[in-house]
DNA sequence: TGACTTTCTGAATATTGTTCAGTAAATATA
DNA sequence: TATATTTACTGAACAATATTCAGAAAGTCA
């Protein structure tokens, strides 16, 4: 579908964990002109290879001390995604996945604390139609949390 | 612990989903001098409020079509985190959480496909000591996946 | 072969990052 | 209260970078 050459891979490797790295520095490290790099990056953006540039913020700094995963069973007719879309629209929800096994969604959510989670489940999640049951898993401690992808060494064209 | 004022909050709001936004533009939008913005951003980095600047890459572009969550039960003595650290060191693993309930870890992992997942579980995960059992959940479809935090409107001081 | 596209360079220019001296307000100190 | 000290910011100066663009070289296609 999308074909990335050696140089694209190197660019991605270099900017994945340093989104603000300058084109000039990329150019130096790859032995190219900055304008050439810029053109490639623009193309990677247009192709959808680069999805976004994000600043990762410490959740504790915003008083979001609680992280939880919630499994949700729905009674929607198969193929309908209304519930999942409704859930995805709730800002506290970071992830919504449709998972294998009994009509289930898995979502990842951050709130201030367990009280605010309960409150959120009653006032936001609970109002959505189609939920049959939920199973909540509270995170006690996070050892690793990244969106970093493992990038292969090189693949030429 | 960390005190953020109104301006800090606005800065974080503006750069959370646009890591490369220029200081000058931030300055314009906040009615400040670029140098003042720079000073605040540097301070947010030093305080650990800003953790990193990431480029989000489309996993499909790197042929990582499979996303899975794996629950792992360990037989480690309580308080030891050796297994969790070992798991966190595996590059395919994006997240490792210590979760409430029977000595369990939850991890998030990306691989090329289900075959490569099986292979990874045998050759990488399976070699780590301390694993009693695993339960794997395959993601069929992802509707939302972000590390975006909900930022409060304003809080003055 | 010839037209076309892709990818890159290198120069020119606009924009931005960064440093720094100085100011004003807030806070601490005596 | 009067006096330091710190903090947060401005605005100017300079260095670095982003961006545009014409043109060259190589590849592609008919």
TrEMBL record, chains A, B:
A Pfam family matched in the record: HTH_24
Gene3D superfamilies linked: 3.30.70.920, Winged helix-like DNA-binding domain superfamily/Winged helix DNA-binding domain (1.10.10.10)
GO molecular function: sequence-specific DNA binding
GO cellular component, one term: cytosol
GO terms (BP aspect): regulation of DNA-templated transcription; response to amino acid
Keywords: DNA-binding, Transcription, Transcription regulation
InterPro entries: ArsR-like_HTH, AsnC-type_HTH_dom, Dimeric_a/b-barrel, Tscrpt_reg_AsnC-like, Tscrpt_reg_AsnC/Lrp_C, WH-like_DNA-bd_sf, WH_DNA-bd_sf
Ranges where the HTH asnC-type domain occurs: 4-65
Entry-linked CDD domains: HTH_ARSR
Identification of the protein by name: Transcriptional regulator, AsnC family
């Amino acid at each position: 579908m999308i074909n990335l050459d050696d140089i694209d891979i190197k660019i991605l490797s270099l900017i994945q964990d340093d989104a603000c790295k300058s084109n000039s520095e990329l150019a130096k490290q790859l032995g190219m002109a900055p304008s050439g790099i810029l053109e490639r990056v623009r193309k990677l953006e247009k192709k959808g290879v680069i999805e976004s540039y994000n600043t990762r913020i410490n959740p504790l700094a915003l008083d979001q001390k609680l992280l939880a995963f919630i499994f949700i069973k729905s009674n929607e007719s198969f193929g309908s995604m209304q519930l999942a879309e409704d859930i995805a629209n709730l800002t506290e929800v970071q992830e919504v996945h449709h998972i294998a096994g009994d009509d289930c969604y898995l979502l990842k959510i951050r709130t201030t604390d367990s009280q605010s989670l309960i409150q959120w489940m009653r006032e936001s999640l609970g109002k959505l139609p189609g939920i049959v049951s939920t199973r909540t898993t509270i995170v006690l401690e996070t050892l690793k949390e990244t969106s970093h992808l493992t990038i292969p060494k090189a693949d030429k064209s």
